[in-house]
Amino acid sequence: MKITVLVDNYITKRDFIAEHGFSLLIETDDKKILFDTGQGYALKNNLDVLKINPHGIDFIVLSHGHDDHTGGLKFFIEEKVFPRITAHPDVVLPKYKVESGKKENIGLKYSLGVFHPEFFKGPRALDEKIVFSGEVPKVNQWELEETKYFREVNEQLEKDPFTDDVSLFVTTDKGLVVLTGCAHSGIINIIQYGLEVTHSDHLRGIIGGMHLKNASQKRIEKTVSILKELNPEFITVSHCTGLEAGVVFKNVLKDKVIFTSVGMWFSI
Ligand SMILES: [Fe+2]
Ligand SMILES: [Fe+2]
Questions:
Q1: Domain containing residue 252: CATH number
Q2: What CA–CA distance (Å, rounded) separates 103 from 106?
Q3: Of 95, 124, 149, 255, which residue is most buried, by most CB within 10 angstroms?
Q4: Distance between Cα 120 and ligand 1 center (Å)
Q5: Distances (CA, A) of 216 to 150, 223, 225
Q6: pTM confidence score
Q7: Which residues contact 105 (CB under 8 A, 6 or more apart)?
Q8: Distance from the alpha carbon of residue 164 to the mean position of ligand 2, in angstroms
Q9: CA within 13 Å, CB half, 164
């Protein structure tokens, strides 16, 4: 299986475009799956540079409703290419960021109807080796520090419980590989759930954002010490993990830590 970073906050090669967003292309023997679509400025350009035909994409999985993961759907609508979408049903709820009294709409901006979405609340096998997580149980409360994210339910604003935050669990011969969007459920919660759902006894790697940009030092240190114990082969620093957390990861986990940028790919 080949996993390519299509959209990320970082670029290190010519011609690609970086943005605050994330998207991965997963290529199996017979399928091309897009995991998230970025914010919408970079996807078309980066697909062109990598010579990937959007018509060849079998389906799209949305990690959650935030616009830095769903904004790239605009490109598919403009191209009139509508791969089926798989997501948690709460992906469509209005989402806001409230900071210093300012309310910013950061939710899904496009209607999903044309993509004939399939919504699942719980785990679901998408392929022989790929499991859609569904809602991740928020077991470790220490991972849920964030308070600026809200959602709207029946015209009421409430703290976003991130029911729609899903990951992909890929089983390989060498253990579980977890693909995350923003990991709003908490990266340790996600890993623990992934090991349980796939009956895996070893975490092989993580590719994706961990949303530790504004995390406390205490939380970053606790996260890295658990990751060290889990002893994976690789961990990426991508999208919203933040460079501060990335530096802590690098110092502790050394060569296991990979800073991603657009165009980088993994063979798993
Ligand atoms: Fe994000
Ligand atoms: Fe997010």
A1: 3.60.15.10
A2: 9
A3: 95
A4: 21
A5: 20, 11, 14
A6: 0.98
A7: 94, 95, 96
A8: 10
A9: 25
3-state SS class at 212: coil
* Amino acid letter, 179: L
Counting ligands in written order, the one closest to the CA of 184 is: 2
Per-residue pLDDT of the chain (268 residues; tens, 9 = 90+): 999 999 999 999 999 999 999 999 999 999 999 999 999 999 999 999 999 999 999 999 999 999 999 999 999 999 999 999 999 999 999 999 999 989 999 999 999 999 999 999 999 999 999 999 999 999 999 999 878 999 999 999 999 999 999 999 999 999 999 999 999 999 999 999 999 999 999 999 999 999 999 999 999 999 999 999 999 999 999 999 999 999 999 999 999 999 999 999 999 9
Residue 226 lies in domain: 2-267
- What's the CA-to-centroid distance between 100 and ligand 1, angstroms? 20
Give the pLDDT confidence of 93-139 residue by residue, as tens digits: 999 999 998 999 999 999 999 999 999 999 999 999 999 999 999 99
**CA-based nearest residue to 46, from 21, 78, 65:** 21
- CA distances for 102 relative to 105, 211, 261, angstroms: 10, 21, 31
Q: 75 alpha carbon to ligand 1 midpoint, in Å?
A: 18
Distance of CA 201 from the midpoint of ligand 1 (Å): 28
Q: How many domains, the chain?
A: 1
Label residue 40 left, alpha or beta by phi (over 0 means left) and psi (-120 to 50 means alpha). left
Give the span between the Cα atoms of 37 and 7, in whole angstroms.
7
**Which run of H or of E encompasses 85?**
strand 84-87
* DSSP state, residue 136: P
